[in-house]
Amino acid sequence: MQPGDDPDVRLMLRAQAGDTAAFQELYAKYSRQIVRFAQQFCGSQARAEELAQDVFLQVYRARATYQARARFSTWLFRVATNTCLSERRRPEHRLPARSLDAAEGGTEDQAPPEYADGDAAEGESTALAREKRERLRQLLAALPPQQRAALLLARAEGFSYEEVAESLEVTVPAVKSLIHRATLALREGMRRYDAGEEP
Angle formed by the axes of helices 72-88 and 45-61, to 10°? Predict the structure, then answer.
């Protein structure tokens, strides 16, 4: 799709010309998506909503200099990615993430694991699926921020490698490398989890 064929580009150009309803339409279309994306970086729904507001404020302020060189969503997610990566550099986020190779063993203040009723096979499978999803979420959160951004843009948002490269301001080979390393880390983390090597 050429930028001129993108209806969202046309909305942004209308917003650039002073049409506030066009900007509100873009906000309504993308705000939840940006919140979901931001939450993968900050872990907090409330903070993700604040970051999304910040993203759209930046978009609104940049409307006068906006140029339709790519799909609107590619440009929007470049703003969102830069905002999220800046958020990850804040001092409160500099605590070391739990390594994928972290040693086993809990601490006294950890809650004991919850066990599903052994007679309720369906309840047990639901609980196991929920545990797996949570483990995958933890592994995703432990990825380096650029790997996480590349993976989310390509897999969750459906961007092409070229669009991910533009959003992250890197080359396509760099995107492929980021996604490859992220995929290997997630696969290894889940293998260790399935093998009982990690809690």
Answer: 130
